[in-house]
Design a protein that fits this description.
alpha+beta, 598 residues, three-stranded antiparallel sheet
């Protein structure tokens, strides 16, 4: 097969008009059939780390109206003002984009800087305040129905999920230890949502055990076992550069403030990560008891708006974003009030304003529009997670890594376009005419007509096509469709991931089946590759010969690792977080674990 519209080289000019705040892959939604879900941006095309728990609760973001109910109230019933912002806070450092500086013997791609895509529209009035709000929301375990699961619970290790305990999913055959098993993320227990707690100090929702509930999940994982997503969690770090997110691309760049799919009136454009972030928090697999809603009474908004952000988690006093609000050594955030800590209402007011409302009226407005607030704020935060100080960016590649890069370019560069290392990005797709311009894929039979397929998605033979239809089965639909009776190259295709910090984000591929970078390189040499009718023929020639193997591996493992990500220095520092079935993360400040990075 060959394309009449090829993916562009890295020499494409910068698309300077892109405007997006950028949200990364915070969390995701459940996969069709109820046994898997999508954990953030990323994809498969070319051996990357993306992951996704497709389908499930794509909606659930509608505004149900009404006031904050019961003991959850959003403040005093007396209309007292909500402060518009804590004052005197320093500005937050934000990366300009991905830098590319040539090492000796290396031919650099152009442009030298790819800017971070910026969100258009939206309702944020203070970007720095929105970043603070977004970081608090992303890391806050109170968002989970059980009070233990945050978006970060599946994106805590270089933006990905490194857990190995209770992460296996049995695949479509619902039988463990068979060929279609996947490695996903450990989520919530099988529960049905009843109500939020009326005790503001208790983050646990009132839920009932479901037996059998979702038959596949409850029977497979049993009582006392957390549900598991059916796709691998891809990195949230760097995900702002993708046009659409999730492995199947269903998280639209048009943000509707209600769900990931983006249908209807857009609140913001270039906001796929805002869309993506609306899946996991109400997913009955990932973070929520089944049936919880985003907005209105008895919702996630009603739960969080009156609560203290990070009320059970310590924030380092030198946290690069939340440090000025830290209540260290105690948990929570403080906004300068003598008699209380911050509430989410305070942080929302600072980021989005009050719309001339005050007190309970303002709190009610936040509750009724919480999905939109959450999405925009999480995007604002995740847009700061730009891994732009790798040896590749800094011109510090070793001669062996330069050799590996040059070989990589010849074998893998048409899909993993530099410097984002993906052809599914805002820049690349825009330069190729936008998402409405298809890639034309020529079937292997030259007598057959080329077929249109969506840019940035490829079937690379990780699994039989029927095992996971990927882009073709996206709940949000596709931009292009093959003619009736022709090979559909969207079928079984997944988004091409970026490759930065690859050594930190195992396991690999959309189903997490490959545990090592060596395994990925061996896969492209044919080990375990499934020769689907829809396979992208370019992967058939992507194998790396033995004489280049070590250098390519060195480039991928070390030349693309940002030291700040590895050692959790700013902007990759974070609050403390206990990970279910995983580690206990201490609060990290701007200096991370103390390592000195270039």
């Amino acid at each position: 097969m060959r394309r009449s519209v090829k993916r562009p080289s890295a020499a494409l000019s910068v698309i300077g008009s892109l405007l997006v705040l950028g949200l990364a892959a915070g969390c995701s939604a459940g996969k069709p059939g109820g046994t898997s879900s999508d954990n953030s941006a990323g994809g498969d095309g070319g051996g990357g780390t993306g992951g996704d728990n497709a389908g499930g609760a794509a909606g659930g973001g509608g505004d149900t109206g009404g006031a904050v109910g019961g003991g959850e109230g959003g403040g005093s019933t007396t209309p007292t003002p909500i402060p518009t912002a804590p004052t005197g806070l320093p500005a937050i450092a934000i990366s300009a984009g991905l830098n590319v500086i040539a090492s000796v013997g290396m031919t650099p791609p152009s442009p030298s800087v790819v800017p971070v895509p910026q969100m258009t529209g939206g309702t944020i009035v203070d970007k720095d305040a929105a970043i603070r709000l977004g970081k608090a929301l992303f890391w806050d375990a109170q968002a989970g129905s059980d009070g233990t699961i945050a978006c970060a619970s599946c994106h805590f290790h270089a933006g990905a999920d490194s857990r190995t305990l209770q992460t296996r999913h049995p695949g479509n055959d619902l039988t463990f230890q068979t060929s279609d098993d996947a490695v996903g993320s450990s989520g919530v227990f099988s529960m049905s949502f009843g109500s939020i707690s009326t005790n503001l100090n208790d983050p646990v929702d009132v839920c009932a055990s479901v037996t059998p509930g979702n038959p596949a999940q409850a029977v497979l994982f049993g009582a006392g076992q957390r549900l598991v997503t059916g796709r691998n969690a891809p990195p949230a770090i760097g995900a702002v550069f993708f046009l659409d997110n999730f492995y199947d691309g269903r998280a639209s760049h048009n943000f509707n403030g209600q769900d990931p799919l983006g249908a209807g009136t857009a609140i913001a454009g270039n906001a796929s990560l805002a869309s993506q972030s609306l899946g996991p928090p109400i997913s009955g697999i990932e973070m929520s008891c089944a049936g919880r809603q985003w907005n209105g009474p008895n919702s996630l908004g009603a739960k969080l708006v009156p609560r203290t952000p990070l009320a059970k988690q310590v924030v380092a006093s030198d946290d690069s974003v939340l440090g000025p609000l830290s209540n260290f050594p105690d948990p929570g955030l403080k906004c300068g009030f003598a008699d209380r800590l911050c509430t989410y209402a305070d942080l929302i007011a600072a980021a989005f304003g009050t719309g001339a409302l005050s007190g309970q009226a303002a709190a009610d407005a936040y509750v009724n529009g919480f999905a939109s607030i959450w999405g925009q704020a999480v995007q604002a935060y995740e847009a700061t997670l730009v891994p732009d100080r790798t040896p590749y960016d800094l011109g510090l590649l070793t001669p062996a890594q330069v050799n590996g890069l040059n070989r990589f370019r010849g074998k893998c560069g048409s899909c993993h376009v530099e410097p984002e290392f993906s052809d599914a990005t805002v820049r690349v797709i825009t330069a190729n005419g936008g998402p409405t311009t298809p890639q034309q894929v020529q079937p292997s039979d030259p007598l057959l007509a080329p077929q249109p397929a969506d840019q940035g998605y490829h079937n690379i033979g990780v699994t039989p096509t029927v095992e996971d239809r990927g882009r073709k089965a996206s709940p949000g639909g596709t931009y292009h469709t093959a003619a009736p009776g022709e090979v559909d190259f969207n079928d079984g295709a997944f988004k091409t991931p970026g490759l930065r910090n690859l050594k930190l984000t195992a396991p690999y591929m959309h189903n997490g089946r490959i545990p090592t970078i060596d395994g990925v390189l061996n896969f492209y040499d044919g080990a375990g590759m499934v020769l689907n009718a829809e396979i992208d023929a370019e992967v058939l020639d992507a194998g790396v010969s033995a004489d280049f193997f070590a250098d390519v591996r060195d480039f991928l493992a070390n030349g693309l690792t940002d030291c700040r990500v590895e050692h959790e220095t700013a902007p990759f520092d974070h609050p403390a977080l206990e990970i279910p079935n995983g580690p206990s993360l201490p609060a990290r400040g701007a200096s991370g674990d103390g390592a000195v990075c270039p």
